[in-house]
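Hey,
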Amino acid sequence: MASDDSGHETPTRRDYVKYGGAVVGGGLIAGCARQSGAGSTPVESNAESEATESDTAAADDGYSVTMSPVGAVEFEEPPETATVHDATWADTLVGLGHGDAVLSLGHPELYYTGYYDQLDGVSFDTSELAALYNDGLDKEQFYELDADVQHLDPVNIGYSGWSGWSMDDIEEIERNISPFFANRLSRAHAEPSEEFDGEYEF
């Protein structure tokens, strides 16, 4: 941590990279952990009985997931709701049978559901989702949604300028609501800003 002129501690680039990486994995773990409930049909596996004991231990100890650029993030229990901007994360959650966890999309009206229409028993209703983008990101909306995890790449929104946010805004949301977990720049084949000096892993 570094201190500004007022003595307030702010995260440095290295602090953030070390803290960061667990939200997408958190969403995936949530999907896997919740797959056996709420009407979902788990995939049969020969290893299912052996996994029961370790799964119980994981539930007791919580979960830790790691991914660049956010680092390791711990959850006491699987996240049940997620703030989402890009369709990628919504598709992932729907694929895991947890589309109901998605609270938002950048542009819900543009989200294409035609592929889901071709799959028996698969649907995803976007009509009630919050529109996350409107000439930037509204921080108050994140408080209103109060998601268990933020599936947005913090480097992408904290340094790119399109969101209107700084890394201080990201730290505030993480501190008061829940962590960020996504790696947007890898999917976009885009380079991170120079502040990361090669620490952003693809």
